[in-house]
């Protein structure tokens, strides 16, 4: 059962059992709105009755459908909306999380939507397409796995100085490997999460970096098969040309809030976008290049790897943690070296379960964004851990998770 306590409200307040009237303009007609039983009009205002416990969800739904909430008014005991003193919506009486605030005149004053957040600048998408890719050059190709680790992971930096390929943290680019497939056609592109900030590793706006693990597996005949593009990238020499497409992706973008909580859950090369986040937040040269983005919030990285030598970017991560102990926390899950409470291997979902109550208390805050990147199998374990924490407060995790989808970001493969 969905519990309004989880999103900042309380069913025991004066408003707990109340209904509210949303006056909405610009709600567009679509198949989705028809299925929601909203009283659609092609112009003018519509009025939607909303129970207190669903105010945030309805507000988000209306905004997604292009509507603008003009006013929010409590429904009086006789079934009519309480009027404002002057017949128009009065400002105030709505908290930062869009919940009504009690006042001495709460029965007579209407409520308005919290001030809209400023629109984000346009995010660059598909500046270069497969039929006309950007031709960059490999600048460096370095091994990230330490001695004794499993597999090979490369940090590869490309030159972007000859074109207009730019990006923001959390996006991906496509790589088109050289050669042809078994049907005689050019290889198709593969997408990789960007591991550098928008300014690049050299903070000169001229590079982009990837974190690439060479794919290796056994086929049914017992033969070792290597991934086409990851193998191509592993052996790419500095100075070699490379075909790049993109950028793409808007799911994993960082919030603009400088005091946000940012929870990052990664396995293996899923660290790539989080490296970009953390460099933007905490690296000295990045902070100098971004006077308007001086992060003051809290970042928590939960990182799953098989062995200690597989902790990618370990030294740099731990240097940032040492410099910003109150703002950045790292929790490792090292599966082949650590044991979970049942005596089995310690995977990322075990760490999430171990800290589930603390994570849940953060997730309930409106300023918290959670990001999951890595192997798809990690999602079920994370959901199971969060389900247990939410149930202690009578909240159904899956329902709550849907209500915060703007703050719960997943990119798994």
Can you characterise this structure?
The chain has three domains: 1-116, no CATH class; 134-248, Translation factors (Elongation Factor Tu (Ef-tu), domain 3, Beta Barrel), CATH 2.40.30; 261-412, Rossmann fold (3-Layer(aba) Sandwich). 21% of the residues lie in helices and 25% in strands. The protein is built from ten helices and 16 strands. It has a six-stranded antiparallel beta sheet, with helices on one face. Strands 14-13-12-15-16 form a five-stranded parallel beta sheet, sandwiched between helices. A three-stranded antiparallel beta sheet has the order 2-1-3, with helices on one face. The longest helix has 14 residues, at 378-391. Mean pLDDT is 81; it is low at 1-16, 29-43 and 76-119.
How is the secondary structure organized here?
Elements: E1 19-25, H1 31-35, E2 45-51, H2 55-64, E3 68-74, E4 134-143, E5 153-159, E6 172-176, E7 190-193, E8 207-213, E9 216-218, E10 224-226, H3 228-234, E11 241-248, E12 261-267, H4 272-282, H5 284-289, E13 298-305, H6 314-323, E14 328-334, H7 348-354, H8 356-363, E15 368-374, H9 378-391, H10 397-403, E16 408-412
Parallel strand pairs: 12-13, 12-15, 13-14, 15-16
Antiparallel strand pairs: 1-2, 1-3, 4-5, 4-11, 5-8, 6-7, 6-11, 9-10
Helix pairs in contact: 7-9, 8-9
């Amino acid at each position: 059962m969905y519990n309004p306590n989880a999103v900042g409200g309380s069913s025991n307040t004066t408003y707990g059992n109340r209904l509210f009237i949303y006056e909405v303009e610009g709600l567009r007609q679509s198949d989705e709105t028809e299925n929601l039983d909203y009283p659609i009009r092609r112009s003018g205002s519509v009025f939607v009755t909303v129970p207190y416990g669903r105010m945030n969800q309805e507000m988000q739904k209306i905004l997604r459908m292009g509507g603008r909430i003009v006013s929010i008014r409590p429904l009086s005991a006789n079934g009519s909306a309480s009027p404002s003193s002057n017949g128009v919506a009065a400002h105030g009486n709505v908290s930062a999380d869009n919940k009504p605030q009690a006042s001495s005149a709460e029965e007579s004053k209407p409520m308005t939507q919290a001030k809209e957040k400023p629109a984000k600048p346009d995010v660059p998408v598909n500046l270069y397409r497969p039929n006309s890719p950007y031709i960059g050059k490999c600048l460096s190709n370095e091994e990230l796995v330490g001695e004794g680790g499993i597999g090979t992971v490369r940090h590869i930096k490309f030159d972007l100085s000859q074109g207009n390929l730019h990006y923001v943290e959390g996006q991906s680019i496509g790589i088109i490997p050289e050669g042809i497939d078994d049907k005689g056609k050019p290889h198709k592109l593969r997408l990789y999460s960007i591991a550098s900030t928008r300014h690049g590793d050299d903070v000169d706006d001229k590079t982009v970096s990837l974190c690439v693990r060479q794919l290796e597996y056994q086929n049914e005949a017992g033969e070792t098969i290597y991934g086409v593009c990851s193998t191509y990238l592993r052996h790419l020499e500095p100075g070699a040309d490379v075909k790049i497409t993109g950028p793409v992706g808007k799911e994993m973008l960082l919030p603009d809030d400088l005091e946000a909580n940012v929870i990052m859950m990664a396995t293996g090369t899923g660290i790539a976008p989080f490296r970009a986040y953390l460099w933007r937040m905490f690296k000295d040269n990045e902070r100098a290049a971004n006077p308007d983005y001086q992060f003051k919030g809290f970042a928590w990285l939960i990182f799953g790897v098989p062995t200690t030598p597989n902790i990618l970017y370990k030294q740099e991560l731990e240097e940032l943690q040492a410099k910003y102990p109150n703002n950045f926390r790292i929790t490792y899950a090292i599966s082949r070296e650590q044991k979970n409470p049942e005596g089995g291997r310690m995977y990322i979902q075990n760490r999430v379960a171990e800290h589930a109550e603390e994570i849940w208390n953060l997730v309930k805050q409106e300023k918290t964004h959670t990001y999951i990147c890595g192997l798809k199998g990690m999602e079920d374990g994370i959901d199971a851990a969060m389900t247990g924490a939410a149930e202690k407060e009578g909240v159904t995790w899956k329902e709550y998770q849907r209500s915060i989808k703007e703050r719960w970001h997943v990119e798994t493969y």
